[in-house]
Amino acid sequence: ALDERRAAAPPIAGAVRVSCPGPSTERLAASSGVGANSSGGFFARKTIFGGVRRNPNKKRVSSGGGRANQHVEQIVSRPTTTLLLLLNVCLAFCYWNRHVCPSSVAKIYSKIVVEGEIWRSFTGATAHFEPMHIGFNMMSLYGLGMELEEGYGSIPFLFYNVALVVLTTAVMMGMTYARMKHTGNARLAEVSTVGYSGVLFAWMVVTSLERPRTCPVPFLPDMCFDTYSVFGGAIKFNASPIVQLFVAQFIMPRVSFMGHLAGIVCGFALHWSLVPLELACPHVLIPAALLAHMHFVRGMVLEPASGVVAWTGGNDTAPELRALQPLEEEEEDEEKVGGGGAVSNKRRAGSEREGRFAQCLMLMSKALIVATVASPFLLDPLTSAVLSQLVTSVFFHVGAQSYRAVCRNRNDAYRGADAERELNREKARGGFLWRGAVLSLVLLLVADAMTAAAWTVAGTSVAAGRILLVDLPPALVMMALRMALNLAALVLAVAVLHDLGEVGSGIFIHVFGPVLRWGKAVGDGIAAASSSKPLYVPFEGRGFALGGGNRGGGLLESASSQNREDESGHAL
């Protein structure tokens, strides 16, 4: 009987992938026969019931149970949908209670593209300022979440929602740019857009393409559209989302046509697999989108600020000290006159510390590059674990080069206003790069921690994507080493931000404030521990008798006498 039950049990996949489901996991599931079915759509590896996978191991509420218990079970079993509902509703209440202006959090082309306020992609998507707006969106989110989350899984569904926020914003900004270029209407750059409906339209496309027939208008039940497929079902099309777009525009003219259209485009691209699913993971997509914006839109990645000379190599052990060479004669003159020696020594000591710190950054950059190169030999090269490490290494390497350029030219600020202005521009550029590095490192550490936890709970081997299979203990050791390296890189990145004075403000401080405070505290502790001078010597190295008898005062009197000795010039 035991053998019969084992034979009837579903096969278990022989490997666990690193990150959110992608084409590699679909190939793995197809090869192992897990969840295969004959429908062959976007949910081909899942058991289909109206486009939704039903988990056979989950307990169902009996038909005799109350409806309230059923709703509670649905909410608890779909934590991502519940989280998104609470997030949008709570933010709407906070904005209403604090009288927040919509333009301060909305998606605006001039703010996002020109001024680089990428965070508006998220604040604009989760902002609602009218009861009807949030009511319609939350009802749609509840229906779509109840249908889709169980099929995807809670964590992948959350990842895809975050990714769709970025993708819909990028497509919308591209459409706005094309429209401004075609019509010449510059006022489009100042149009404010808020609401989660762009992401919801993308999910509407996914659900409609998984159904054979869809009726998009509730008050026109006979107006339905069939789903057509070509290339063996690889590409499907249904006109119902487009009809919903025009119906919504006709009923409520104030809705964002460009925002909804961007959601439809992203929904079709997601279902047609035009966007690789491994790239849709937040710890890959968000840093990559930020890096692409900084390079292609703002030109801040490869080129330093004009007039700032970046160090390009050489045999010097501390190239930052070369900035002091033109000033050596002036410093010698100051020392001859008197009073300038202490200043010059202090400046030289500060430059030496900057040089050592810059070298430490370059060593960490090389270590991250080594970790990136080594990752494909242990993991699938196309998984998000490798891609996110690659993006993080690029941020850190370019940021380290920018910091070396700042150290090389920092003393040029004493020579004129132009040099100081150019140096401030380079520091601002470095601030953008290092804030991006902090963002990428935090997301990567969270994803690696989730991956290591999944491996530990699963207790199975990890697929390498090629021929090599790595057992669980070596994989966990490798992941622990990589997390330790990225954690050290995060501490250095926070230290650079504080040194440049480019920690930032606004939403960056609100989101990453604890990380910045923790990183600064750790960095200061390491610096204090490595310093050759003690920070504090009790009683200046002397001992004092407590009590004092008739003298009175005891310790205080001895301390005051010591202070008088110091003032008289006999201090140690």
TrEMBL record:
Family (UniProt): Belongs to the peptidase S54 family.
Topological type in the membrane: Multi-pass membrane protein
SUPFAM superfamilies on file: Rhomboid-like (SSF144091)
Keyword terms, alphabetized: Hydrolase, Membrane, Protease, Transmembrane, Transmembrane helix
An annotated GO BP: proteolysis
Region spans: Disordered: 327-348
Gene3D superfamilies: Rhomboid-like (1.20.1540.10)
Cross-referenced Pfam families: Rhomboid
Protein's UniProt keywords contain Protease: yes
Domain Peptidase S54 rhomboid per the UniProt entry, residue ranges: 116-275
MF terms in GO: serine-type endopeptidase activity
Origin species: Odontella aurita
Gene Ontology CC annotations of this record: membrane
Protein name, as recorded: Peptidase S54 rhomboid domain-containing protein
Main location: membrane
Transmembrane segments: 157-176, 188-208, 228-248, 432-455, 475-497
Keyword Glycoprotein: no
